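Case study 2.
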Amino acid sequence: MRPLMQCPDCRAIPPTTGYNAEGVWINGVPPHLIIAELAIFASVAHITPIRIPGYWYGRDGTAPKPIIPVSHSGQKVFLYLHGGAYTLLSAHPSSPFTPFICRNLVQLTADAPHLLAVEYRLSSTHPLPEQHPFPAALLDALAGYIHLVDVMGYDPSNIIVAGDSAGGNLALALTRYLVENKGRAGTDTPTLPAPPGHLLLISPRTDLSNSHADTHLMFNPPGANRELTSAYSNDMDVIGDNLGGKGYPSYPSLAYVGPFGLGMALTNRYISPASLHRGLHISFMGFPRTLIVAGGAERYLDQICTLRDRMMRDEGQVTYYEEPDGIHDFIGFPSHPGCRAALDAIGDWLARD
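Prediction:
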């Protein structure tokens, strides 16, 4: 296995021979579709749309990439956003974790036999070069979504936006942008595509601040309806102290917020939709059918439950599945005893559509 820091990135499409996957180039978001707050965020951070790679994965017995146009097929498709704290890993099939999740998802139902994984830009900061902060990854995720609709011909209602860990955070941000700006665009046409029909969140990181781990908030957190302990008690998780909140600010949080500063991690609904800070104002009205998968032994459990409660308050189409002994992103570990049951739960959720 290659070192994590040497995974493929957004600059090229390495060969996929032997992996049963196919790489494609995805054009950057047309400027007139970057509107509202996203346009301001991009301007402040000096982020512009770029061409990025994507990787198609197909169900066993099918070609990785679907035959276009698919507009009349009625088939669903996954748009997948990988984890890695916004600073690591890749959508390429040689990367750890991501291919295992992607290949399992396309086996769950014949109605969704293909998946496009987006190779979004990764953030970095000192001592590495400072590059690709928010909203670079959001622009790239949006580019992947537009590719599915405008190039491949999928109906938005048949798109399942999915992500694990930081990818779950990004899936939420992408869906929020599409929901809040439904039918809008700049002075030109066409408009933004409609929001997706489904949202799948696997161990999503929903709070890039320390609001769920701050000792001053532990026993009287504003907005929380449960005792917050997972960042401390779930100390056998694969997520270490730093990413769990105790070592805040973490490198990934600093890299992702970039020039905006850590205040954005406390109060911005695109970055920390589960933040407990009183300055966060957020709604999930209009969000699609959602499944949240969590592990009972992961450090992020509290913030995931905060997200769950907020989504259930605002939008009734939320299903929650918790594996009692699941560590963070346990679904990406084939040897984890809860992996198969969680995949079956996702399959059941898809079948209930």
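Confidence is low (pLDDT under 50) at residues 215-220.
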